[in-house]
Amino acid sequence: VLIKCPNQMVRQMFQRLCMHVIQRLRSSHCALYLQGMEEGEDTSKLGEASCVTRFIRMLLSLMENGARSHLRHLTEYFSLLYEFSKMGEEEGKFMLRINAISSMVNFYLGQNSAAVSCQTDSPTEEAGGSGSGSTTAESGGDKLRPGALDKMVALVAGLLERSRDAAGHLALLEPDARALLHAKGFPFIYQQTRDCLNLQQTRSLIFALCRWNEPLAQKIVNMIFQAIAKHSESCGPFFKLLTLLVEGSGGGAGATGGLPCFTQLVLARLWDVADVCPHAALEWLALQVPRNKAAHAWALRTAERWLEAQLLGAGAARVRAAAALLLVALVPSQHFRAGYARARPPAPAPHPHHPHHPHAAHAAHANHAKLPDTAHHTLHQVYTMLLGKLKAARKYTDIAVHGTMKLTAYFGVMSYCVVSRVEKLMFGQYFNDLWELYHPAISEPSVAVHPNKQALLTFWHAVSVDCPENVQLAVANQRLTKHIAFNYILADHEDGEVVAYNRAMLPPYYALLRLCCRRSGAFARALAQHQNIHWAFRNIAPHAHLYPGAADELLRLARVLAARGGGAGSSGGAEGEGREAAAFRRSTLAAYLQDGVYRQLWVAGLNGRTCWSTLISAFCTLVENEDDRLYVVYNGGLQMTFEDNLAARLSVVGHNLKNVSCMIAKVALHSLHAVYVEGAGGGGGAGTGGGAGCVRAELTAALRWARALCRTLRTRRDHKEARALLLACKDWPECARRLLTMLNLHHRHNHLRDAALGVLREIVMIGGGAALGALVPLAAGAAGAACGSRSRHAHVCGPRSQHGAHGAHSAHGAHGAHASLPQHAAIPHDKHNAHRLATSYRPYHKFIVDSI
């Protein structure tokens, strides 16, 4: 019933019944438990005077006869023995005298070495022990073993404590001592740890054995490390046991209650297993240093022994990551450690102040709460050690031997340590070491994806932002100014891995160049003429949908290079600097205009809106005066600015100026206009839908840019020539109609309406009577359509179509299909409404008057 019965409830009821009987008999039988224990007498007769002790002896004998075949049902069996041993002093002494410890040890070790053939085939029976081939508690199919045998370990630990003499030393009988203490390698402790039975009870057992016995503790720790070395792939339970031993013995504060200081014993052997399982050893130490002062001090003291070997030299990436985690754990700040644990590669964004920009991650980290003085002191110790390894890092740059990722964890943790300007200034004395590490071993190899380079540039950028001292060190280095622009970059826009790498690596690289240009005019002038910069504008900047951060940094760099003076501290006459800046603007504009990259993207239908935004941003950055705008016009800029898939079929060279008006109108004709105006029909008033809101600013900027180009064409060219160019475009009436539709937008978006009016005004002033002849019928048709709409909806609009009620805006924007057109009706005088009507109609009136 107690062992073979497959019903757990029945076994539990029988266990409680047995304990109830034993408790009822204890008062009359307790004195009989130890009869026959006289000195030198055979213990086989011990307990014969009581039925209770005879019953317990019979239970112990079951371990040798039948219990092994029913291992999963032994929970109640060992629970009964455990509860009996705790009932009093007599019960404990009785079980010690009959060698219960050695019986259980032999049972457990015999179970682990028993042949599988001795197990039953019944599905309700246990499927065998862990055996010599098991590697984890679950690998032998015996997931219930911990629950079944943990009471056995607790019983052994409890009996050990009861065996102590008056001096506190263990007084075990020879069979029990031989089973626990004298067996080579402590097999009972070893096997139960490997099986992960109940590590809390295993710790109690070891404490019971080692109290007032430090040499024995040393032997057990040695056994644990030998097991770790032997089972490096499944050493987790042994490290968990080490954690319990260290924390349970005072956590490094010294021996307590007779227990030896397990922290010192464990740390003395920890690096002995670093060669076979460094990842587990580093992770274990990283968990200990925040809560164990002895481990913390020891890790700092021995850093020279493990820092380079594990953080830079280790072949496995997870080992290097564990070493970096250990370094962060050394800083006594929970906030600092938690920030590193949460760190993830951020998604790129078009602006470095955006919280997800790749090289803004560490700037965001610098906004952490101020570290305590003790944490800052330790951080500087760690950071100084890391900086000191920049020279040693050169050994790991040979790609053929070490690959391209050995230094990623190293630079990653160094970047995380830069939390203030102090750390940036500390880097100054190591600047030459960084440059010699970077060039030429990392910068020049023709490797498409080079994570070491990405990590190094990210760190370099982190220590340069808001630190002009470090930037000055860079521009003062002649070798750097000569070679930093030579950086191998593969622009393979079809390879996802290469794209992801460039998306992360290029922004900090171009940001570094920008910082140097701001610091040194000479460097800026040299960089403006460098072939690699012009390559970047041709091959990286047009693909803002792939490299948003890099494209934005290139535009910011172009803004610095295009500024008159060429950068801070520039020398030479202002006239010469102006010519240099103009030459850079022209050559960069040529990269955008003449290579046809944008045309190819639009023809392929590849993210044309992003390309449009990038192109407008580039023009706003590089076009400074009317000469620049004429340069854009004569090099196909208008066609590129306002072209769609159909217009892309036209020749760039043959129709540079002939398509001026067509291209202007194409702004509204195609993607931006469709999203903003036509898309608004399904989601509320014009310009209120999600898509319209996204493109409103882009559409306004496009119209203003188009107006500026047209004005330049009108003022800098003969009127007859400009008019002929406009009329030569067959699509301009349709374009004008599209622009007219933008005049019916809700009056809240006056800036967009005014921009459309501005372009139409330029068309009229260029086209003259011919333009008016085409625009008047279009306008009349639009007015007729509006009148028809008014007559159909007069009962809705009422006498005040201008919505004089103050709450009309929000209700109309949320529920109406389009904003009602302004109307006039015979109504009482209302100054507020009259002002709104005048504001609404005045731009149209001015447009007509100017046209006449």
Helix percent reads 55-70%
Envelope shape: elongated
Which range does the strand content fall in?
Answer: under 5%
Number of helices: 45
Q: Could you name the ranges where pLDDT drops below 50 across 5 or more consecutive residues?
A: 114-144, 344-364, 566-572, 602-609, 644-671, 679-691, 794-821
Q: Please summarize the sheet with the most strands.
A: none
Indicate the radius of gyration in whole angstroms: 42 Å
C-alpha end-to-end distance: 111 Å
Number of strands: 0
Q: Give the averaged pLDDT, no decimals.
A: 77
Structural class: mainly alpha
InterPro entries: DUF3517
Domain DUF3517: 2-99
Region (Disordered): 119-145, 342-366, 797-818
Biased composition (Basic residues): 351-366
Give a written overview of the molecule.
The structure is a single chain. With 852 residues, the chain is an all-alpha fold. Helix 24 (451-464) runs parallel beside helix 27 (496-519), helix 27 packs across helix 28 (521-528) and helix 34 (626-634) crosses helix 38 (690-716). It is elongated and about 130 Å long. InterPro entries: DUF3517.
